[in-house]
Amino acid sequence: ATGRVRKGATQLAHICCNYVLFRVRRARDLGGMVSLEHVDSRIAQCAARQWSIVDVDDLRACGLSHGAILTRVASGRLYRRYRGVYSVLPNPTLEGCFMAAVKAGGPGAK
C-alpha cells in the first residue's frame, strides 16, 4: 500500500507542478531561452522528482537566469522557502518541506 501511496503522491505532485508552471506565460520569463515550454517542462520534471522543491542550481540547470528566477518569484510562479530554495507549489507537502530544509543545508546535508 505504501508504494501505491507514494506513486499517487508523486503523480499528484507532477500534475500540480505542471499546473503552477504553465498557468502564466510571459516573454520576459524566458531569461535568454528560446522556448518557455522547454524550460517549464524541465522545471516541472525536476520539481516532481523532488516533492515540488527546486534550488537555484536546479533552476539554472533548467535554463533560468537570475533575473528570470526573480521574475517568477515576483509573479507567484515560484515560492521562496529558504535562501536559494523554492517551491513550485504555494503549500508543499511535508516531504517537500523536509526536502527544502535539506537543500537549504547545502551540498553536505543528508
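the 2nd protein, sequnce then structure:
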Amino acid sequence: AEVEKWILSLKNSKEFLKLISDSISGACKEVKSSFDYFEVNKGEHVDKVYISGGLVSIGNLEEGFAENLESDAEILKALPKGEKKLSEVFEGKEFAALKNSFSAAFGLIL
C-alpha cells in the first residue's frame, strides 16, 4: 500500500519515471522491432500506440513511450466518458487510482 501511494503521488511520478526509464526503453525497443518487421513485411506504418494497465495512472508515462517509439502514444481509457456510468458504482479515490488496472478485464467483458 505504501508503494502504491508513493508511485501515485504527483510529487514522485517524475522520480519513478526516471527509475523505470531503462525498462520503458527496453520494452519500446522490442515493440519497435515488431513495428519494423510489420512495416517491412506488410508495407504499413504504425502511427499511434495505445497504452493500458496499472502504470498508466502515473502521469506522463505516454511521453516516454512516444519518445522511444518515435510515434504518438495515448492512454487507452478503461472507462470512456459518455458510456455506462460505472463510475457511479465504483466511487472513491482507491478505484480512481486503480481503474486503469482493470482495462484487460473490462476488455474481456465487452
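The longest helix spans residues 21-42. The chain has a mean pLDDT of 75.
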